[in-house]
Design goal:
By secondary structure, the chain is an alpha+beta fold. The chain contains six helices and eleven strands. It binds adenosine-5'-triphosphate and magnesium ion (MG). The site of adenosine-5'-triphosphate has 16 residues, from strand 5, strand 8 and strand 11.
């Protein structure tokens, strides 16, 4: 059987996003046959671990459920990477933060990144508003584990794409395009992250005091491609797909 790559498409039959389009070209350049599918067609696709699926987060979770595979929770800053954060970082809850009255503080969900985006909150009121139910977002319970960090100011941020421990792409995503993170620190992070997924991204920022720090890491299965070489992007998605499905 020749493995296929299924690319999620929208109602017009086009890849669901620029990421899907880049992955499609990338996989074709690696010699794969690709087929587009609509989200509604998931149940009729020949889903086997050997056939790679490229799609949005929700779509992939539905696919893995059908395949009976469990996706491990990804921690954006696992303990081995704590030394590279360069700022205090701890697990907490809304109740605890309110009790400690320690503001400003950077907060993000400890596990479920869909709950809200990480940001600096300046006081109790701002924290309460952030965690209130909003349209399109699930309500955040008072005891949901949060990741809190001492605030820092990043002048620039870059995303490094990592395939089996090696950097295969880098993209600027925020701040000053002409400030570059220190390569030595990036290398040290990739080297220290022994338990890393086969494909992931590591974000690095340079602070207003000139320090290169790890911002966070993200699992590789649903990363945007951000203009990196399309074949490398496809290889990264493939590596993580194979790891998750055990192929
Ligand atoms: N300790 C911090 N202090 C101040 N700002 C921070 C801190 N950590 C991260 N940031 C800023 O907040 C942004 C979001 O942080 P992070 O990526 O960790 O959270 P996220 O929930 O994944 O959000 P996003 O979806 O925006 O990536 C970072 O890109 C960075 O600009
Ligand atoms: Mg992020």
């Amino acid at each position: 059987m020749i493995p296929l790559v299924f690319i999620q498409a929208d109602a017009d039959g086009e890849p669901y996003s620029t990421n899907g389009a880049a992955a499609e070209r990338g996989f074709r350049s690696l010699g794969y046959e690709t087929r587009r599918f609509l989200r509604e067609e998931i149940d009729s696709l020949p889903l086997v671990p050997e056939n790679i699926v490229v799609g949005g987060m929700g779509c992939l979770h539905a696919v893995w459920e059908r395949l009976g595979v469990r996706v491990p929770v990804h921690f954006s800053a696992p303990a081995v990477l704590a030394p590279f954060l360069g700022r205090e970082s701890w697990r907490t809850t809304q109740a605890e933060l309110l009790g400690a009255d320690r503001f400003p503080v950077f907060v993000k969900p400890y596990e479920d990144s869909k709950l809200f985006n990480g940001q600096v909150v300046r006081g109790a009121e701002e924290l309460t508003i952030l965690l209130e139910p909003r349209p399109g977002f699930p309500a955040v319970a008072a005891d949901v584990p949060l990741l809190a960090q001492e605030p820092v100011n990043f002048d620039t941020e870059w995303r490094v794409f990592v395939l089996r421990g090696r950097a295969v792409g880098i993209a600027h995503y925020r701040g000053d395009l002409l400030i570059f993170p220190a390569g030595g620190l990036i290398r040290a992070v990739l080297g220290a992250y022994a338990s890393a997924p086969a494909g992931y991204s590591a974000d690095f920022g340079v602070t207003d005091t000139g320090r290169t720090l790890l911002v966070e890491t993200n699992d590789g299965y649903a990363l945007g491609y951000m203009g990196i070489a399309e074949a490398r992007y496809a290889e990264l998605l493939r590596a993580r797909w194979e790891e998750i499905t055990g192929t």
